[in-house]
From TrEMBL:
One of its GO terms (cellular component) is cytosol. The gene is dinB. Keywords: Cytoplasm, DNA damage, DNA repair, DNA replication, DNA-binding, DNA-directed DNA polymerase, Magnesium, Metal-binding, Mutator protein, Nucleotidyltransferase, Transferase. Its cofactor is Mg(2+). It comes from Niastella yeongjuensis. This is DNA polymerase IV. Binds 2 magnesium ions per subunit. Its EC number is 2.7.7.7. Belongs to the DNA polymerase type-Y family.
Length: 356
């Protein structure tokens, strides 16, 4: 089998960049696309001017305005973002039909065999970036390598407007040098646990056997074992159906206050609502995930009479489910909110955001 050529394209501050492109008065200013602080909203995307103040996606809008008092909030225009995303996708299709969208603003491309017979994955990435810049007046960052995991990490290395190539013979050394907190799926809590075990880089993880990694980190341990060796055999899968959309967060300090739990559910519900609107989806089944301080994990679900996508209904249903559990008896270290059982399906499979 020929070695694959994978590109990960990530639009730079996509929603915010579209707003600044369409409204010259917003250019050069700190803006956040998302819900207003008074409505318990969250930041969907922040411009690079806002990011200098520490404003980040998935951050509560109230916290964002504290970090940047001059922050300008813009209500999301998902129909516009979807239209622009389709234009970006048209650029991709000039080069390959093997496109796996992860959201409106990022996708994997398998260009092992490209339509224009350019041959060079770097050359293809350069052409895609140039077309997006010239035709849409937006910028994108690209990561190029032999598998999805490495390409995704590479695309984030030189943002904005970056292009990073990790050559086949450099992949394993690259993974060895990578700090554990840069591994996708390794958040603050897991990284802290690794650091406490003197595991700071991929090279440190590589010293452990697969059995040891599974014992320490559960099922993800098998993935860590492979990926530190540069092994990721997942193919680029176009036309994957959406089964669920969810967001979850592991907390640095366990929650024992119902008011704090409600605040976190509101935030997670807002994130899920934004994602549902991105994909034009509505779901009937609301699910919460709870992991207690003793690592016991449970899920609770409720199916509604009609499909929904609004934050208020998702948050209210999630809170009702939470109140039926032992929140006063045990501290909570993780909460998650998900929506499934869609009225219409499309997009990518099991979209989950892990927030740390």
């Amino acid at each position: 089998m020929a070695q694959r050529k994978i590109i990960h394209i990530d639009m730079d501050a996509f929603y915010a960049s579209v707003e600044q492109r369409d409204n010259p008065e917003l250019r050069g200013k700190p803006i956040a696309v998302g819900g207003l602080p008074e409505n318990r909203g969250v930041v969907a995307t922040a411009s690079y001017e806002a990011r200098k103040f520490g404003v980040r996606s998935a951050m509560p809008s109230k916290r964002a305005i504290q970090l940047c008092p001059e922050l300008i909030f813009i209500a999301p225009r998902f129909a516009v973002y979807k239209s622009v995303s389709e234009q970006v996708r048209e650029v991709f299709y000039r080069h390959t039909d093997l496109i796996e969208p992860l959201s409106l603003d990022e996708a994997y491309l398998d260009v092992t065999e490209d339509k224009l017979q350019i041959g060079s994955a770097i050359g293809i990435a350069m052409q895609i970036k140039a077309a997006i810049r010239d035709e849409l007046q937006l910028t994108a960052s690209a990561g190029v390598s032999i598998n999805k995991f490495v390409a995704k990490i590479a695309s984030d290395m030189n943002k904005p407007d970056g292009l990073t190539f990790i050559a086949p013979d450099k992949v394993e050394a690259f993974m060895e040098s990578l700090p554990v907190n840069k591994f996708h799926g390794v958040g603050k809590v897991t990284a802290d646990k690794m650091n406490a075990l003197n595991l700071f880089t991929g090279a440190d993880l590589k010293k452990l056997t697969e059995v040891e990694l599974v014992r320490l980190f559960g099922k993800p341990g098998s993935f860590y074992y492979k990926i530190v060796r540069g092994i990721d055999e997942r193919p680029v899968e176009p036309n994957r159906e959406t089964k669920s959309i969810s967001a979850e967060d592991t907390f640095l300090n366990d929650l024992d206050n119902p008011a704090e739990m409600k605040e976190q559910l509101d935030r997670l519900a807002a994130i899920v609502s934004n994602r549902l609107q991105q994909f034009d989806l509505k779901g009937k089944t609301i699910t919460i995930k709870i992991r207690y301080s003793d690592f016991k994990t449970l899920t609770r679900s409720q199916t509604l009479p009609a499909a929904v996508c609004d934050q208020e209904t998702i948050a209210a249903t999630a809170l009702q489910l939470l109140l039926k559990t032992d929140i006063l008896e045990v501290k909570i270290r993780l909460l998650g909110v998900g929506v499934s059982n869609f009225a219409e399906e499309g997009g990518v499979e099991n979209v989950q955001l892990k927030l740390f």
